[in-house]
Design brief:
Layout lengths: L1 H15 L15 E3 L7 H10 L4 E11 L2 E12 L5 E6 L5 E3 L5 E5 L9 E3 L1 E3 L3 H16 L8 E5 L5 E6 L4 H9 L18 H11 L12 H4 L6 H6 L4 H10 L5 E2 L11 E10 L3 E8 L4 E5 L7 H23 L4 E5 L3 H14 L9 H8 L4 E3 H6 L2 E2 L6 H7 L11 H13 L2 H30 L12
Parallel strand pairs: 1-2, 4-9, 12-15, 15-16
Antiparallel strand pairs: 2-3, 3-4, 5-8, 6-7, 6-10, 9-10, 11-17, 12-13, 13-14
Helix pairs in contact: 1-14, 9-10, 10-11, 13-15, 14-15
Length: 471
């Protein structure tokens, strides 16, 4: 339901950018027809709109039978080509393309769909399986309606709602066909999607009764051991294959973390700041949290992502962080800022600098950010932990911090929950928005404090974690 709510918001944003027919008929006719995909006659209305040669059709529905397997798909937008065929456009909450100086794609502004031609842009495609499946089925529907272009192109509008990227759908069709026609599995296996699947309460007991190896190694991680004939965790333990068997035994015993070495350590500075960022999809970073060992300080906005407000908020955070660094230097003290898994923080620092430097006062240049995150003063605690520890269930902060004795006030609140909470915080009724904001601040603050707790635990030797292969 949360994903659907976010998708509905994203779809509405994309559709709000679509061109609308002029009030006065111009020399070049332009028509748009909106189909309600929930209407039981939606497929019929889609074919009617295509027969009427509408330039834009939203909510188009196609259905059919593929080698005995029924299928149905909603094409968020259909764009009529000059030759009378249609281009299917899907709206996704994924990041469908990234800017790249070494890649080139064809794209068209959302506001010009049905009016303008694609142009070359410097970007590289990021493929997400479900987006490819939807496009492949839409192309099949257009084929059966006799309205697909010979190049079988589709387009994707991702988190950047202003641009539709063209893609060759033939690259996705074989995988879509295999997925559609694959026979149902004889029994369950754990994959990452199980974490949010409503049927997990049914599958987990069956997997545990079978001691299925995917409980320990989900998805394809178990494939090399299945090829050896090892289908259960106990068989993996008994095979005595070195570290992996020891890690499996620790998992079976409920041990969350193991030490790779007898001694552990972590970088130490006179002044230490723990940092954690929260962002909403690819629209922008709304919260930069900082913890100095005593106080948690949030730099936050609840609206204005992608606008000057986002840049101003980051500028305030950056100036505060640099002021703490400069003050430490003036007092002859060393300074270090820490985060856990720096990819997110690095991305948003660089992205914000790229978008707002020279536009919003106080935002550093991209070179300034790169100099900082490449220095010894910026420390990724995940990289520090990974070199000294191993986790049977992974080494994410949510796995490691409890082993260090830290627990979140907001239990069972994770990344996807924060996305929905921000949607409520930014758009919900006053009481619900206030509650969501408090929840997000608590969560971010505890992420900062958890990073500090892991660091202290490593400095003290992580004694509560057994040594890998010993006992």
């Amino acid at each position: 339901m949360q994903r659907r709510a976010r998708r509905d918001v994203g779809l509405a944003e994309a559709q709000s950018r679509l061109p609308v027919p002029p009030k006065k008929r111009g020399r070049v006719p332009f028509t748009r027809m909106d189909v309600d995909p929930q209407d039981e006659l939606a497929e019929f209305h889609t074919l009617e709109a295509m027969a009427a040669q509408a330039n834009l059709i939203t909510g188009a529905v196609f259905a059919g039978v593929w080698d005995g397997v029924p299928w149905e798909v909603t094409a968020d937008i259909l764009v009529r080509n000059a030759d009378g065929t249609y281009l299917p456009v899907m709206v996704s909450n994924h990041r469908v393309a990234r800017p790249s100086q070494h890649g080139e794609m064809q794209a068209i502004a959302t506001a010009r769909l049905g009016l303008g031609a694609p142009v070359a842009v410097k970007a590289r495609l990021r493929h997400h399986t479900i987006d490819g499946y939807r496009l492949a089925l839409a192309i099949r529907g257009l084929e059966e309606a006799g309205a697909v272009g010979v190049d079988k192109q589709g387009a994707l509008i991702g988190q950047d709602r202003d641009r539709a990227y063209l893609v060759d759908v033939t690259r996705y069709a074989p995988a879509a066909e295999r997925a559609l026609l694959a026979p149902p599995p004889a029994g369950p296996r754990r994959v990452k999607e199980c974490a949010t699947c409503r049927f997990w309460v049914e599958c987990e007991p069956e997997l545990r009764r079978a001691d299925e190896i995917s409980l320990f190694l989900s998805g394809d991680r178990a494939a090399p051991y299945r090829e050896r004939g090892l289908a259960t965790t106990q068989e993996l333990i008994d095979a005595q294959l070195g570290d992996i068997s020891h890690i499996a035994e620790a998992w079976r015993s409920g041990i969350p973390v193991l030490r790779r070495t007898h001694t552990t350590t972590a970088p130490r500075f006179d002044v230490e700041i723990d940092v954690d960022v929260e962002a909403y999809l690819d629209l922008g970073a709304y919260l930069w949290g900082a913890f100095d060992g005593a106080d948690y300080r949030p730099f936050v906005i609840w609206e204005g992502l992608g606008e000057a407000a986002e840049g101003k908020n980051f500028a305030e955070f950056w100036q505060w962080l640099m002021a703490r660094r400069d003050k430490a230097r003036q007092h002859g003290q060393s300074f270090g800022a820490f985060c856990y898994a720096s990819n997110g923080e690095n991305h948003w620092m660089l992205s914000t600098a790229r978008r707002f430097h020279g536009v919003v006062p106080g935002v550093p240049s991209e070179d300034e950010v790169r100099q900082f995150i490449g220095s010894d003063q910026w420390v990724d605690m995940f990289a520090v932990a990974r070199g000294q520890l191993v986790g049977p269930g992974g080494l994410g902060l949510k796995q490691l911090a409890p082993a260090a004795g830290f627990h979140w006030e907001e239990e069972d609140f994770a990344g996807e929950d924060s996305l929905h909470a921000f949607l409520v915080a930014a758009t919900g009724p006053a009481a619900a928005a206030e509650a969501a904001r408090a929840q997000l601040l608590s969560y971010n603050g505890d992420d900062c404090r958890a990073t500090a707790a892991v660091r202290q635990w490593l400095r003290q030797g992580a004694k509560s974690a057994p040594v890998l292969g010993e006992g």
